[in-house]
């Protein structure tokens, strides 16, 4: 908190909100009153600090979010002017969809923020996202160790599947020489 500046220094009010005296109160006020600015300024700060470029996919998602909120706003204004109930309902549906998209995008951005800060702080180790180990498939007639915490499972009785020939791949075709 010793380095905290309101809205990461990207807004005109930054540095004038009493951050030096009580940064916790200023941060709580920023998040409560200016949530969108808080998320965006944190994103800008991390992009500047780690020299991260916004991807085309990020731009597309953020652009869709902004366009949807603008369309919802326009529908609300037109519904107020015209006074049609159907248009007012469509405006409310668009606003609800816009809010859901906004909340989803903000959650994704904040997850990216957390991942970048954890990477910066060395909480991941050498490889943050590793491929899981390969798994082996087993057949019913092979003995497998029981899962931890569960009683051993009984397989099908031999009569249930003994009528079928053992599973195997067909032989490869013989090609003439």
UniProtKB/TrEMBL annotation:
The lineage of its organism: Eukaryota, Viridiplantae, Streptophyta, Embryophyta, Tracheophyta. This is PLAC8 family protein. Residues 119-177 are annotated as: Disordered. The chain crosses the membrane at residues 61-84. PANTHER family: PLAC8 FAMILY PROTEIN. It comes from the Eukaryota. Residues 126-137, 145-166 have a biased composition (Low complexity). It comes from Arabidopsis thaliana (Mouse-ear cress). Residues 167-177 have a biased composition (Pro residues). Coiled coil: none annotated. Keywords: Membrane, Transmembrane, Transmembrane helix.
